[in-house]
Amino acid sequence: RRSDVQRGEPEVHSTLRYAVAKGVGDYLRELGCGFRAVYLYGSAMNGNAGIASDIDLIVIVEHKLDQVCNLLQRLDLALVTSYRVLLGFAYGPASLLDVHIVDVEEERKRDGYGAVLCSPETSPVCLWR
């Protein structure tokens, strides 16, 4: 319910963020264009997300391109705008997605955020591959 979202119920916010992340993953999968996988980690997976929590994603791509960053920034803007409407606030978080882009080489070498994929502390969940 909208009132549960507005009150900041952690279970509701975690579930909402998981659903949004799943939707982002489905959208990127449909686009194809070099997207290989989407992983979710952080407060949405730990069940302690709040009103201001972001959605922590690792997106695996064939190659890092400016177009990928631009697409994800536009997607984030659309999501955060809708989120503010849902909350009934004119203000709110400046961003909803915290996306780290990892190319297949970084994933293979476990370099940068590629190393996070196999971290027991972070335990990211693959939403699709």
From TrEMBL:
> Signal sequence: where?
none
Residues forming the Polymerase beta nucleotidyltransferase domain are 36-76
User: Which protein are we looking at?
Assistant: Polymerase beta nucleotidyltransferase domain-containing protein
Its source organism is: marine sediment metagenome
